[in-house]
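User: I'm putting together a small comparison set for a docking exercise, and I want a reference complex before I start. The sequence is below, and the ligand is coenzyme A. Could you produce the 3D structure with the ligand included, as structure tokens?
Assistant: Of course. I'll restate your input first, then give the structure tokens for the complex.
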Amino acid sequence: MKAPKPLVEIVSTGRWLPERVLTNAELERMVDTSDAWITERTGIKERRIAPPEIGAAEMGAQAAKIAMCRAGIHAGEIDVIVVATATPDRLLPATACDLQALLGATNAAAFDVSAACTGFIYALTVAEGLLAAGRGEIALVISTEKMSGIVDWTDRATCVLFGDGAGAAVVRKSTNNRGILSSFIRSDGTLAELLWRPAGGVKVPVDYAVLDEKAHLIKMAGREVFKAAVRSMAEAADQALLRAGLTGEDIDLLIPHQANMRIIEATARYANIPMEKVYVNVERYGNMSSATIAVALDEAIEEGRLKPGSKVLMVAFGAGFTWGSLVLRW
Ligand SMILES: CC(C)(COP(=O)(O)OP(=O)(O)OC[C@H]1O[C@@H](n2cnc3c(N)ncnc32)[C@H](O)[C@@H]1OP(=O)(O)O)[C@@H](O)C(=O)NCCC(=O)NCCS
């Protein structure tokens, strides 16, 4: 199959991570857990925690400013802002609108995409579609997640897994055959209750009973989620590769969603990509939901892991369930 011609490319990226590091040793003092358990089951050693006064929009704006500076664009040039977040600052209006105001991007349409940990893939795919259809020239795609704000810090089964962070990408129409070669997005709403926040919307508003049960915070059936993640990320890897006319052997760098080292290894094994071609930072940040791939991409670029022409496969899975993938020619 002839490789598809990319219509849209990532020009530059940026990231913002809070300074505060929360280690496994500190978690040992907060809940009944151990560094050995967390490391063996997840690969996570530490994660970042944003200060109380910083919200998702501010985190995302910090990452966006770096990406914009690297692309050499100013706020007025941005046509579309797509924010992926599972941790909006509030339910109305969109975090993207707050972020737009922080950037002063007065000519942009701004909206949120709610696809949990698959959010960066979803948001890039939406931006790609808008730009390819001629609805703008420059898009800003931002994943920003303050997971510490929705985690139950007394639930050892979830609180050890998550962290805060934001990543951003400036996206525009492809000029020189680099860019998005394929993408795949999928979801299955019948499995929503395996990973969710049961209350806090209009169906089950927050009241005293909700607060008592902590039903406004994350609940997860870890083992079921694990199995679905491995299965879905394998399908997603297959689909993006197929649509790009490539196989795992053609890929120079796999950037998987960073939730758990065992899921990352299973995905790489399935896609036939050796671990030296897999970007891993889960040990430093834990699961930052949609921001994991955005941050990892920015770090990989900074570390020189992408050369002109490098083929990158991104694969993600999250609440919804949602899953998706994307192949990029750098
Ligand atoms: C959460 C996860 C690490 C748990 O690992 P697991 O091997 O499935 O472990 P289980 O949930 O079966 O629990 C095993 C035991 O460890 C215990 N346990 C759970 N969390 C623990 C913790 N932080 N410290 C110590 N023990 C813990 C459980 O209570 C259980 O004890 P029991 O056997 O006495 O009942 C794993 O299921 C996972 O990574 N799931 C996917 C999570 C994920 O990626 N979510 C986001 C998707 S985007």
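Residues 222-244 form the longest helix (23 residues). The pocket of coenzyme A is lined by residues 33, 37-38, 41-42, 117, 156-157, 160, 220, 222-223, 225-226, 229, 259-260, 287, 317-318 (CB under 6 Å).
User: Thanks, that's exactly what I needed.
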